[in-house]
């Protein structure tokens, strides 16, 4: 293996007047720097490709150079997981773990889809795709568009439903109609909008699993209900639900990088926790009020769910029930429960009047997060902490 050495001109440069090119020398055995190359035949794993402009061995030049399933995308000569569907040309589906879905797993649906094949070139309806789900074809990909939901759909198979630009629109004529019922199965909704229009969003019961990733739920009675389930939500927004945003009872829960705002005015509040365990991490609750139990943004019957690195400010008072365990967070005045590292200060929301609860530079939430926080991104996908090595910000938003 060889490397190029370019001698530096320190003074006068007379020494190099007649030197036409750099000198090619063999690397020292002790050399720990980037491996030099003239072609990829001289490169080995984990940097098997030669970048011929810099003559440096790198991990990749193009995405086809990336062969690890969980890192299919090449960026700046480094392989990484996919971020959006466009980075997965074979299936047009990027999964939550950064892998591109195998096209054989995907059932394609469209607002005007017909037939039963559910192929990318001939998509079917959403309900037909759900009916076609099997152990080997378990991903439903929605084309952009609006999908009316007039009645409850009971989901009885494990599946992933994803759709950038897709909206489920509630059209039920009966109040409090549920959109999706998940019983004893594992269901993930990704990258979509639920325009609930007076409906309930989704419920998970009887040891099921419900995962919400980059989901927006608005204008409904309630967002999600979990009873005796495994429930998680990340990088999502629940806004303007009249009963509650999330109701988590006897469940194992993970709530992260999520805004729960302007919810519960006619009943329960933003988040209700009853007999559950888990963590609420880097969450922002604002504008949440309730006609019941004093108007809490978060109501807890016990302290088994740790609420940390969050912002719970600008809600009904008292905003947090004293049974909740809150730490390293900004809280509304009146919270007297257990926890350390909390502040009662205006978090400086960007524009609460228009429901933008990102934080401004100079917010007291900056650097307030629990030092043990392991969350590596925020609601927008920005890295946590920023800059690397600093303390992360509390709440759903990290100052970029």
Describe the structure.
The protein has 400 residues and is an all-beta fold. It has a domain at 91-359. It is built from 1 helix and 29 strands. It has one helix at residues 126-132, and strands at 3-5, 23-25, 49-51, 56-58, 73-75, 78-80, 106-109, 139-142, 145-149, 153-155, 159-170, 178-183, 186-195, 200-205, 209-218, 222-227, 230-234, 237-239, 244-249, 252-261, 269-274, 277-286, 298-300, 305-308, 311-312, 325-327, 330-331, 349-351, 356-359. The strands form 6 sheets. Strands 7, 8, 9, 11, 13, 15, 17, 18, 20, 22, 24, 25, 26 and 27 form a 14-stranded parallel β-sheet that branches. Strands 10-12-14-16-19-21-23 form a 7-stranded parallel β-sheet, with no helix packed on it. A two-stranded antiparallel sheet has the order 1-2. The longest helix is centred in the N-terminal third of the chain and has 7 residues, at 126-132. The two termini are 41 Å apart. Mean pLDDT is 89; it is low at 1-33.
Secondary-structure topology with pairs:
Blueprint: E1 3-5, E2 23-25, E3 49-51, E4 56-58, E5 73-75, E6 78-80, E7 106-109, H1 126-132, E8 139-142, E9 145-149, E10 153-155, E11 159-170, E12 178-183, E13 186-195, E14 200-205, E15 209-218, E16 222-227, E17 230-234, E18 237-239, E19 244-249, E20 252-261, E21 269-274, E22 277-286, E23 298-300, E24 305-308, E25 311-312, E26 325-327, E27 330-331, E28 349-351, E29 356-359
Parallel strand pairs: 7-8, 8-11, 9-11, 10-12, 11-13, 12-14, 13-15, 14-16, 15-17, 15-18, 16-19, 17-20, 18-20, 19-21, 20-22, 21-23, 22-24, 22-25, 24-26, 25-27
Antiparallel strand pairs: 1-2, 3-4, 5-6, 28-29
């Amino acid at each position: 293996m060889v490397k190029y050495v370019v001698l530096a001109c320190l003074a006068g440069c007379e020494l190099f007047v007649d030197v036409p090119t750099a000198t090619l020398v063999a690397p020292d055995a002790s050399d720990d720097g980037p491996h030099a190359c003239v072609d990829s035949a001289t490169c080995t794993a984990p940097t098997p490709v030669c970048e011929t402009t810099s003559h440096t061995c790198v991990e990749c030049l193009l995405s086809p150079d990336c062969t690890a399933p969980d890192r299919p995308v090449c960026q700046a000569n480094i392989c990484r997981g996919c971020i959006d569907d466009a980075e997965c040309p074979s299936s047009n589906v990027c999964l939550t773990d950064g892998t591109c879905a195998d096209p054989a797993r995907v059932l394609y649906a469209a607002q005007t889809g017909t037939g039963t094949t559910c192929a990318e070139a001939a998509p079917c309806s959403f309900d037909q795709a759900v009916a076609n789900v099997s152990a080997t074809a378990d991903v439903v990909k929605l084309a952009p568009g609006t999908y009316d939901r007039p009645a409850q759909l009971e989901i009885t198979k494990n599946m992933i439903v994803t759709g950038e630009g897709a909206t489920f629109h509630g059209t039920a004529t009966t109040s409090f109609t549920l959109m999706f019922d998940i019983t004893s199965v594992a269901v993930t909704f990704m990258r979509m909008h639920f325009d609930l229009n007076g409906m309930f969003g989704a419920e998970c019961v009887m040891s099921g699993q419900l995962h919400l990733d980059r989901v927006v739920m608005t204008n409904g009675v309630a967002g999600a209900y979990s009873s005796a389930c495994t429930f998680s939500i990340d990088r999502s927004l629940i806004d303007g639900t009249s009963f509650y945003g999330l109701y988590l009872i006897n469940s194992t829960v993970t709530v992260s990088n999520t805004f729960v705002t302007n919810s519960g005015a006619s009943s329960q509040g933003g988040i209700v926790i009853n007999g559950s365990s888990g963590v609420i991490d880097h969450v922002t609750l604002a504008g949440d009020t309730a006609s019941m139990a004093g108007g809490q943004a978060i109501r807890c019957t016990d302290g088994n769910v740790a609420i940390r690195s969050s912002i719970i400010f600008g809600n009904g008072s008292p905003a947090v029930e004293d049974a909740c365990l809150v730490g390293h967070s900004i809280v509304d005045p009146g919270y007297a429960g257990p926890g350390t590292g909390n502040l009662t200060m205006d978090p400086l929301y960007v524009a609460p009047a228009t429901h933008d609860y990102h934080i401004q530079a100079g917010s007291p939430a900056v650097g307030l997060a629990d030092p043990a926080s392991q969350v590596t991104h925020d609601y927008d996908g920005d890295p946590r902490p920023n800059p690397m090595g600093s303390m992360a910000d509390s709440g759903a938003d990290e100052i970029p």
